[in-house]
Every structure is written in C-alpha cells, then in structure tokens.
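A quick word before the example. In earlier lectures we treated sequence and structure as two separate objects. From today on, think of them as two lines of the same record. Here is Circularly permuted type 2 ATP-grasp protein written that way.
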Amino acid sequence: MHALALPDARHYDEMLLASGAVRPHYQGFAGWLQAQSPEALARKRREADLLFRRVGITFAVYGDEAGAERLIPFDLVPRVIPAADWQRLEAGLRQRVMALNRFLADIYHEQAIVRAGVVPAEQVLTNSQYQPAMRGLTLPHGIYAHITGVDVVRASDGEFYVLEDNLRVPSGVSYMLENRKMMMRLFPELFARYAVAPVAHYPNLLLTTLRHATTVENPTVVVLTPGQYNSAYFEHAFLAQQMGVELVEGQDLFVKNDYVYLRTTAGPVRVDAIYRRIDDAFLDPLAFRADSMLGVPGLLSVYRKGHVALANAIGTGVADDKSIYPYVPEMIRFYLDEAPILANVPTWQCRKPVELDHVLQHLPELVVKEVHGAGGYGMLIGPAASQAELADFRARLRANPGNYIAQPTLSLSSCPTFVESGIAPRHIDLRPFVLTGKEICMVAGGLTRVALKAGSLVVNSSQGGGTKDTWVLEENGSSTPGDKSFLPV
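And the structure line, produced from the sequence above:
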C-alpha cells in the first residue's frame, strides 16, 4: 500500500489538495495507486526500462566523454489534466502560435510591429537567428512554424504560464507517444477507468501538416536528420517510420535544375517537403556555414524559388529567442486584437540597465537564462546556487548583459512520482506540440517532464530529468476506455 504524503503548501500539487484530499479528476487513479505494493511498481518500472532499451529509446548527452546513450527515466504515475483545464490551455496555445506565425511573416515583410514600436528593431534585425535570406520570401499559406513545442508550467496559484516557445526543431514528441504505449502495455486495466484522450494519431496529423506546407498535389515528404550521433536521432527515425516516409541525411539529397531530389536505387525521386531536424546554420553550405557536412548544397536557392517546403521555415528561431519571448503577449494584442489567454512568466531583460540592476540586487532569488540557451545549460537557479556560482554569474551579467534574461523562481507544480523512497512529489512541466497547417491542431496532452531529484526545478533530460505519460480526460468523465489504438493485443 502506498500512503500519499501531504503536499508542500508552497506548490500546486496536481493530485492532492492542500488538505491531502485527492482532487476529483485523480480519485480513480489514486485509489488504484494506493493498492499497489512498492515491489509490484518496481517490477513494472524494470519492465519498462527493458522494453524502452529494446526498442532503442535512448538519447545522447552532449559533452559526455564516454558518448554513452542513456534511457530517459520513465515514471509510472501519470500526470492527469481535467478536460476544462485542457480546453483553456489549448485555446491559449492556438492563440499564441497564431500570433507567432503572424510575427514571423511580418518581420520578413512589412515589419509593421517594429515600425509601431511594439518590438524594438534591434531585438529583431540584429538577432543572430534573424535570417536576411528570408526577407520578402512569401511562404505557402504564410506558415513559418509548422511544429511548435510550447513549454508550460503550472504555478502555485494553479494557473498555467508559458515558460518558453520552441519554434526551431522542438523535440520530445516521440517520448509522448512511447510513454502512452508503455502505460497501456503495463497497466491496461487503468484505461478502463478513465476516458483518456488519444495521442496515437499525432504522426498522421504531422504528415498532413507537412503535406499542406507544399503547393504540390501528392507531395513526397522526407525527414532530414543530422545522423545517428544526434541526441534526438531516435525521434527522427521514429517519426519517419510512423509517417511512412524516408529518413534521410544531407548526403542522400541533391539539387538539380532548381529542385531537390532523393537518391534511391530506382533513380532520383523529387522531394517536395522536408521536415528538417537540422539547425539553419547547417542546412546549406553554399548559403550558411561552408563547413557543414550535414546539409544540402543549393537547398536555399530551391527553397526561395518555392520548389521545396521546409518545416520549420528558415529563420523561425528569432521568434523563440528568449529576448523576444517577453513581447509575445503584445504580439497577440497587435496581430489578433485579443487579450492573451496564457500569461508569460514575469521577465527582466538584462540588456536594460534598470532591469539589470534589479537582477543583480536579487540574484539569489531569480533564475537567469541565456537568451539563446536550451536544454537547461547556461542557466543559474539563484536559490540553489553557491556563493561562487552567484559571483560568477554577476560577472557574466556585467560583461554581457544582453545575453541574459531573468525570471522569478517559480514554484512549479508537483506530481506524485515513484522514486527510490516510494511515492513522493516531484516538480513537472509540460510541452504540448502544436501543428499549424490547414488549421491549428494538436493532440490532447504533450510531454510531461519531471525533475527526479527532490526539490529540483530542472526537468531537462540532459540534466537528470525524466518523463511521464500525460492524460487529458475527455469530457464524458472517467468510466469509458480511451486510446484503444494502443491497447496490447
């Protein structure tokens, strides 16, 4: 039997009220969980690890001298989101991604938001992710970010906040899909208690989105990977397989007569859409980094002629830069004439002298991030930092203030998690994946990442975090089976 400890009153607990009572949407699961022995759950976790390793669900950690591939730890306790919460979150995500696409189209054309003084020109035009090659280029349907991963947290007030937007090559969706498969394999009986919204159709939605990015009637789509040594290679291969399209590397493609072709044993095949998992700088050695061995020489020329679609578009990185993030609520008001449904986390821009002074004075209370940083690297969590780390960051901030933003240390919501000591709360976030094609769509859920160290707020897998299955309950309650497509046979 598992007893659920009283939650920390400083955090919003996804399963438990402050009194220790179980929230209504978790009651069926909590009863089941309390009936499980630690030994039974430990056996299931070992089984999950074995199956994940057998399938090859691993990731590489950059900078790991051993070059070893690791499993992302998988937790058996799902994160459950009631239907009403998801409806509001989904509406906010649609609104946000629509505004970000409008922003990208604008800054590469009229630049109305810059001329209106809403976003400073220098923040856009001198941004390292801004691509002058995209100026004046009109894309099919005006879509720049076809796939967006939005990192969302629930704070102590119970509200969802957007922590950051990922518009370049957002990763993690394969873990969302495999986590659901695993839960249905290990605990099929649970899905008779809950009406869990399905996620298995994501690859079909993705393929439809990629096809819509072209102007061709029956387009050929490929997934372009940097290769097997990339940390997300499993995901690249997985999505290509699930969509039924070719997984290719740059050397498999070539440009001829203003089109891109795939080399095959039956001869060249024209490629119409590329889901690229390679950063802008490495896409075309003739246009960007001349030393890149990962891209396709001449690709930009074909792209500019409209003869191939790229998802996401070149130059989308400027919209997910952390120095642009503070302006997204104003983008929503500017382009959509609507109030933002989801709030940003309060953010200090260290390039502004007054805000830098505030950050320096309150550094032990804040989280400081590099504007181009990702993966939990290059950041400071003030309350957990040593005096030496604080001194080091003060020096960095004074030397290059424009490279950093700062935010309050949020009390991320927690969710009961099966750890070595038993069931204990651990902090989590959520990355839903938003697809923009003929319409904006998403599967109900996303990748829930969990900080497995007690008290830690860093959920990134590269920093020791794990993942959970994310259950969004359908409106008809918790008595009918859900997601039958993943039921074991």
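Notice the following. The first strand starts at residue 58 and ends at 60. We will return to this example when we discuss secondary structure assignment.
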